[in-house]
């Protein structure tokens, strides 16, 4: 089911309330390198998948 804009904004607001990074959330800023962003997304996805196991 696709996320609506409101759901995405709500999710981001909830994640911003975290006190620190966790294995499936990293806080980054000012990163516009598409390759690096893709690598981060892949790494976070892998970390989240392992955390579920």
Sum this structure up briefly.
By secondary structure, the protein is mostly helical. Helices cover 58% and strands 0% of the residues.
Commentary on this structure:
- The chain has a domain at 20-53.
- 58% of the residues lie in helices and 0% in strands.
- It has helices at residues 5-16, 34-52.
- It is globular, with a radius of gyration of 13 Å.
- It starts with a helix and ends with a helix.
Number of helical stretches of at least 4 residues: 2
The secondary-structure class comes to mainly alpha
Number of strands: 0
Query: Radius of gyration in whole Å, from Cα?
Result: 13 Å
Percentage of residues in helical conformation: 55-70%
N- and C-termini, Cα separation: 24 Å
Uncertain segments are: none
Order of helices and strands: HH
Largest sheet: none
- The average pLDDT value, as a whole number, equals 84
Shape: globular
Strand content: under 5%
List the helices and strands and how they pair.
Elements lengths: L4 H12 L17 H19 L1
What are its keywords?
2 helices; mainly alpha; 53 residues
